[in-house]
Known about the structure:
Layout: H1 3-11, E1 19-21, E2 30-32, H2 37-51, H3 57-64, H4 69-84, H5 94-99, H6 106-123, H7 126-148
Antiparallel strand pairs: 1-2
The site of protoporphyrin IX containing FE has 22 residues, from helix 3, helix 4, helix 5, helix 6 and helix 7.
Amino acid sequence: MNACRSSRKDLAGPGGVRRTNATGKGDRLLRYEVVDVEAIHVLVQTFYGCIRNHPRLGEIFERRLAGRWEEHLPKMESFWQSVLLKNGAYKGKPVPAHLKQKELMSADYGEWLSVFRPVVRELFVSDLADEIIAIAERIAQSLWLATFGQAGSVPPPELSSKASEWSGSCW
Length: 171
Ligand code: HEM
């Protein structure tokens, strides 16, 4: 039912060498210690499982991607592979893809991050999670600037976080 919760189950198994218990706070999830193609696959699937439940963004994604999810998810895996593994898998152009979404509002980028951050923290050990989140924040800031920025604009503060911030459980 809840894609965020069902995705947790996938991570709770015995796991491979690339995952570890991260916190010692009674949290039994195993977390990725390295970023690889498999970890990115799980990241993308989990994130979209969560964002599809978001009351506003979920509706935007469902409307825009109706009948096209099967092309979108592999594309997003390529995107994150290019960003995190630098393997050149993604050939698209994110800015025009967002500029054409006239319904986007300034606060949507912060909402997107508020879903992305806890997903990353659930999946990756904390140092890696900090790095991935910082990268996503920089991309969100540049998409925000491309979508809403004018000369001298500064992205809203919710598009950055201190590395130590813990955003809680998956949205
Ligand atoms: C404001 C919140 C966001 C919304 C509502 C949103 C929504 C969407 C939608 C609906 C598409 C599919 C466009 C299409 O194929 O017609 C898309 C594509 C994409 N989004 Fe977002 N997005 C958001 C933020 C972000 C952020 C922060 C990132 C990166 C960190 C991102 C990365 C991408 C990429 C790489 C694509 C594929 C572009 C392409 O090559 O076609 N998006 N987004």
